[in-house]
């Protein structure tokens, strides 16, 4: 029969246990297979050849684990040997355990396909548990923090001396050679060559060695054109020489939307005063009617003993001693982003904050951030302060060389693109307090123009020094108690605060096509300038009216189509009346219902470059939940405004959104001291088609406007957000998979434990949680897979994992560099009743087997019952005719039946 077959060269290298080495195309002949049956099995040589070829993980296909036991004896503990099946009584558990063991070693597993395929149910997963260390250069006696645990612990591995392959195997090996390292498996493939220690000479040496190994002509700029080992390996594996393909790719424009196409908000993230670390925590803050104003930070080197003075004219002091602060602004997970402690110390904390919440915005959208590396995602970031490091009395020597990029405003957006590998536009905006809203406007324009397919848009403010308080004290523009009393008769100045916020946005048509959860829609936006007003920093009412009308025009709406406005509302005696009169003139005429007016600044203070995006996040939540929170600190509306001139009302009490026969709409305003004004109109997302009942995280219609579960402390877990039914895709329960495989990963062991703690707080259905994690989270180097059949098992095992333990039916480990080998057990893989069980349990196997019997039945001898002998053998039970080809019981590997082949 073998002589009648046509043999082709294998696409995957095969190690033969006849020769003990890699088999070439000339080996696969009829004579070879005849020899294969009779010859001694050189199994030890075969395993050794696989190890020398770079295999670090071995999967045995077949029951019993015979080859796994023998291979471990041959190779020791240097590699991982994983049997697919070894317990006949629970094959399903065996298989999922094997997949889990492969996954934690770094083998790619298509989890969405394994867990049922199709769209995963939406579960509000917690964002990544960043492990902060302190980085701040203003305190006396600064000490450079020690690096956290390595991102990729170096496993004990044998030195690879065998043949190398191009791409994933060749590049790390040559990088290690050029750098003088012992093993390429220690190389972090996602770090840039510069971060790995390359200079120009090393780059040329690497290019020369690659030319020698591949026989290809490569440019001297190779390491600059493909800045990480992973990117270079992908380029080499492509096999096209690169330049032509790169030119073709550059020539293909991104699809552009219509000039007025709405833009969908699909993800959000924030850090705001009051300990707010997520949009849901912000929503809880405003619904509870709390503010986040507190004392000055004590960890930034401010001279707090001499900073306060009640006299507004006293130089160098402030008459306010409270504000809204991010008290963990010095904290940063440098290891997570592959940044050295030296560079992290020199980085503006605003850059650090934006890196973390950019990652979280992707996760909030259910998008794996690593999946966007190399794609045309844009970054538009607003920033005001540029003081970090510049005003320090002493700059540590460790920070020198990084201060320029660490403090440059332009690098704020570029840093996010660089670290996450995003290749769309990267633009930093400084229009003072309108910066983040201008950034959103620019992102929407860029999306419609086709410059990018997605965009991160937002802003950040951290105050390294108290200069803003001192300066506004001289101008008598501060609120003495640090609180913004927006549009109130008691308004007495602004209250400075800090914050950071990011939105992930894309064209509405793309969000619908990709099945992304749409939180709200940007219907229109506009930006303009005051021009010559009554003073450089004085707002202009006519300019504010013009920007509102332009935004309405771009949205194709009339003033009465907008229900509410999240105002700038700084709480100053000059700015608030000007803004209120502009709103009354633009929105307040000819309305059936009054325009409802509020301001988040009454809760968190004036977050400057983050003020606009924070207002957008609050407004998106209000649109989703159908509630308009009250504005704090308003005794009586300011008498400086004729409120009877138009139909505009202050939100002095919480209100349900009015019942409407159209989507809810609200606008957000921001006016910068630069004179740049911005206005954005948001619209409630259209309800998704129902496909069953609400998921575990969705309330039924008319449900509560807040999550029922209390918000835990930020360090422990994100809140369990209950999604409004009106804007959530209703997805049926996923097909049950026994047991559910809950995949947890992080950059370090401590973060794995913290991530497990966050997941524990969800108390989610195991199958839904498993599919959501597999579909939307990055798989990072430190991994654990928890197998659980029900909620109770999942809770127990996650709790143990959070304590740093390895509970039953849980596999944990770290990614190991190296390829995967597959061991085929040959005749030893058969056992009594195996074929019958497959035939009975799996329809696909049954249909295929029936087809084969039908095709080959004429050539097979007939049994005593007149049926084909092959079918009778499979159908027989234990003790029946030909009930099996012999048990796989671990007998000598030198016998062909137990060591029939090793392959890779």
What does this structure look like?
It contains 30 helices and 25 strands. The longest helix is centred in the middle third of the chain and has 16 residues. Helices cover 32% and strands 14% of the residues.
CA radius of gyration is: 32 Å
Summarize model confidence as the mean pLDDT.
82
Tell me the total number of β-strands: 25
Distance between the termini: 25 Å
Shape: elongated
Spell out the blueprint of helices and strands.
Layout: E1 15-16, E2 21-22, H1 30-38, H2 43-52, E3 55-61, H3 66-75, E4 80-83, H4 91-105, H5 111-114, E5 133-134, H6 170-179, H7 193-196, H8 200-214, H9 222-225, H10 229-238, H11 243-251, E6 263-271, H12 279-287, E7 294-295, H13 304-307, E8 322-323, E9 331-332, H14 341-346, H15 349-364, E10 377-383, H16 403-407, H17 409-420, E11 426-429, H18 435-449, E12 454-461, H19 467-474, E13 499-507, H20 508-514, E14 520-529, H21 541-555, E15 564-566, H22 575-587, E16 595-598, H23 601-604, H24 611-625, E17 627-628, E18 648-650, E19 655-656, E20 665-671, E21 676-684, E22 740-746, H25 749-760, H26 766-776, E23 782-788, H27 791-802, E24 810-814, E25 819-824, H28 834-841, H29 843-856, H30 869-875
Parallel strand pairs: 3-4, 3-25, 10-11, 10-12, 15-16, 15-20, 16-18
Antiparallel strand pairs: 1-2, 5-9, 6-13, 6-14, 7-8, 12-13, 14-21, 17-19, 20-21, 22-23, 23-24
Helix pairs in contact: 6-8, 6-10, 12-24, 15-17, 18-24, 21-22, 25-27, 28-29
């Amino acid at each position: 029969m073998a002589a009648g077959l046509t043999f082709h060269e294998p696409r995957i290298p095969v190690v033969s246990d006849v020769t003990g080495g890699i088999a070439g195309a000339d080996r696969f002949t009829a004579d070879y297979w005849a020899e294969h049956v009779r010859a001694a099995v050189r199994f030890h040589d075969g395993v050794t050849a696989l190890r020398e070829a770079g295999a670090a993980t071995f999967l045995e296909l077949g029951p019993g684990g015979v080859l796994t036991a023998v291979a471990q004896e041959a190779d020791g503990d240097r590699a991982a040997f994983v049997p697919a099946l070894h317990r006949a009584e629970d094959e399903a558990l065996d298989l999922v355990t094997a997949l889990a063991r492969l996954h934690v070693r770094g083998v790619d597993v298509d989890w969405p396909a394994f867990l049922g395929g199709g769209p995963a149910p939406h579960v509000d997963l917690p964002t990544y548990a960043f492990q902060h260390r302190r980085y701040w250069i203003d305190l006396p006696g600064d000490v450079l923090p020690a690096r956290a645990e390595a991102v990729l612990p170096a496993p004990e591995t044998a030195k690879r001396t065998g043949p190398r392959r191009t791409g994933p195997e060749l590049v790390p090996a040559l990088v290690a050679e050029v750098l003088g390292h012992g093993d390429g498996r220690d190389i972090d493939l996602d770090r840039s060559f510069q971060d790995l220690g390359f200079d120009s000479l090393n780059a040329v040496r690497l290019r020369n060695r690659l030319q020698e190994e591949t026989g290809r002509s490569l440019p001297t700029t190779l390491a600059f054109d493909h800045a990480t080992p992973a990117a270079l390996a992908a380029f080499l594996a492509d096999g096209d020489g690169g330049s032509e393909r790169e030119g073709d790719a550059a020539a293909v424009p991104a699809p552009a939307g219509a000039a007025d196409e709405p833009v969908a908000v699909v993800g959000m993230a924030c850090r705001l005063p009051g300990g707010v670390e997520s949009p849901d925590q912000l929503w809880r803050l405003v619904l509870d009617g709390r503010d986040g104003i507190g004392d000055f930070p004590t960890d930034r080197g401010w001279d707090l003993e001499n900073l306060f003075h009640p006299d507004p004219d006293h130089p160098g002091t402030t008459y306010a001693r409270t504000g809204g602060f991010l008290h963990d602004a010095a904290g940063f997970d440098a290891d997570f982003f592959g940044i050295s402690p030296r560079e992290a110390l020199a980085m503006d904390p605003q850059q650090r904050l934006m890196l973390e919440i950019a990652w979280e915005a992707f996760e909030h959208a259910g998008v794996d951030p690593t999946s966007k590396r190399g794609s045309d995602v844009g970054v538009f970031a607003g920033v005001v302060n540029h003081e970090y490091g510049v005003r320090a009395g002493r700059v540590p020597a460790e920070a020198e060389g990084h201060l320029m990029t660490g403090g440059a405003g332009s690098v704020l957006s570029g840093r996010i693109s660089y670290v996450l590998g995003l290749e769309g536009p990267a633009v930093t905006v400084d229009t003072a307090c309108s910066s983040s809203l201008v950034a959103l406007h620019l992102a929407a324009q860029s999306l419609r123009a086709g410059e990018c397919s997605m965009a991160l848009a937002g802003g950040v403010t951290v105050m390294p020094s108290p200069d803003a308080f001192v300066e506004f004290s001289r101008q008598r523009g501060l609120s003495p108690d640090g609180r913004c009393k927006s549009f109130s008769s008691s308004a007495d100045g602004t209250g400075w605060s800090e914050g950071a916020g990011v939105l992930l946005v894309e064209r509405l048509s793309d969000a619908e096509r990709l099945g992304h959860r749409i939180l709200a829609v940007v219907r229109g936006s506009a930006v303009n300038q005051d021009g010559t007003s009554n003073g450089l920093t004085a707002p202009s009412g006519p300019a504010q009216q013009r920007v509102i009308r332009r935004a309405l025009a771009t949205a194709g709406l009339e003033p009465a189509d907008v229900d509410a406005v999240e105002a700038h509302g700084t709480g100053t005696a000059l700015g608030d009346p000007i803004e209120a009169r502009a709103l009354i003139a633009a929105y307040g005429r000819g309305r059936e219902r009054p325009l409802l007016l509020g301001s988040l600044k009454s809760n968190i203070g004036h977050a400057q470059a983050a003020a606009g995006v924070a207002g957008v996040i609050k407004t998106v939540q209000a649109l989703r939940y159908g509630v308009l929170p009250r504005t704090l600190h308003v005794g009586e509306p300011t008498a400086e405004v004729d409120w009877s001139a138009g139909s505009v009302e202050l939100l002095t009490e919480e209100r349900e959104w009015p019942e409407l026969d159209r989507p809810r709409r609200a606008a957000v305003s921001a006016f910068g001291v630069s004179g740049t004004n911005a206005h954005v109109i948001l619209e409630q997302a259209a309800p998704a088609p129902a496909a069953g009942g609400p998921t575990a995280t969705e309330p039924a219609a008319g449900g509560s406007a807040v999550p029922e579960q209390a918000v835990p402390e930020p360090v422990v877990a994100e809140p369990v957000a209950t999604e409004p039914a009106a804007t959530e895709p209703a997805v049926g329960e996923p097909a049950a998979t026994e047991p559910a495989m809950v995949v947890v990963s992080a950059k370090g062991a401590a973060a794995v434990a913290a991530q497990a703690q966050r997941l524990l707080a969800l108390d989610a259905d195991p199958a839904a949680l498993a599919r959501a994690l597999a579909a939307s989270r990055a798989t990072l180097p430190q991994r654990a897979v928890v197998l659980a059949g029900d909620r109770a098992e999942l809770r127990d095992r996650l709790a143990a994992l959070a304590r740093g333990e390895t509970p039953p039916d849980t596999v944990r480990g770290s990614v190991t560099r190296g390829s995967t080998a597959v061991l085929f057990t040959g005749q030893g893989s058969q056992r009594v009743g195996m074929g019958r069980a497959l035939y009975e349990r799996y329809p696909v196997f049954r249909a295929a087997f029936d087809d084969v019997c039908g095709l080959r039945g004429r050539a097979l001898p007939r049994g005593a019952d007149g049926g084909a002998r092959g079918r009778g053998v499979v159908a027989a039970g234990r003790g029946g005719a030909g009930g099996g080809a012999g048990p796989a019981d671990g007998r000598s590997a030198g016998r062909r039946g137990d060591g029939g082949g090793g392959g890779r």
